[in-house]
Amino acid sequence: MVEEMKGWIYAAAERIKISLKNEQLEIETKSNRTDLVTDMDKDTQNFLSKKILAFDPTAKIMGEENGKDHLADLSGRVFIIDPIDGTMNFVLEAENFCIMMALYEDGIGKLGFVYDVMKDEFLYGGPAYGVYCNGEPVSPPENKSLGQGLVGLNHVMYRKDDYHVQAIGEIAMGVRMSGCAGYELINLAMGRRVAYISRLAPWDYAPGGVLIEALGLKMSNITGAKLQLADREVFLAGTVAAYEACLQLANS
Predict the structure, then answer these.
(1) Which pTM does this prediction carry?
(2) CA torsion sign, 186 to 189 to 194 to 198?
(3) Cα separations (Å) of 182 from 16, 233, 235?
(4) Which of 12, 97, 147, 233 has the fewest other C-beta atoms within 10 Å?
(5) What is the DSSP letter of 148?
């Protein structure tokens, strides 16, 4: 199944690269002028959905686009898709975006896939499989404290100082704002971040969440409660040490 799903994602990435090369994007807005969606977001989700259903006609699918953004029942086999995570980056930078997919069974994360398309950095795996980056095993990152590394943050949360994130940033070695959850979760898994805080939907955190938990990192909503795979939540993840420090500061 891992190789099958990797193949779907690589194929979807080639389609996206062709669309960028041909400069044929159709861009629309959703909730506001900065909430972008392109024809490739929709096309990529449709492409992956067809692959999933051909592989398993009984599977359930949750995805950001095409009216698939909520599932009332997470029993059985559920695939969670973010066809292009970081659409603003995709449109304006043509880089720093990811294709992401997770496999859950009866509400439990089994496999996660996060592919940074333009950097060709592909993390995949799960708790029973191990985590790999481009075929090489990924070791659990060092349990660094908040003060020993970089923190990924949502720029609006930082500007408004929601949950005392400015104080968190002051303790950290620095703050980074990439605008792409997949990019941040890759960096967390690879030890390039010690924590990440943002407002995320299930398709933003589920794929990378499977990977970071398999590597021994922690994640929850900002109060420490379990993520619900339903509505958008304030997401917190990090090394055990950095996670605990962020959780305490955010709720102080």
Answers:
(1) 0.95
(2) positive
(3) 17, 16, 13
(4) 147
(5) G
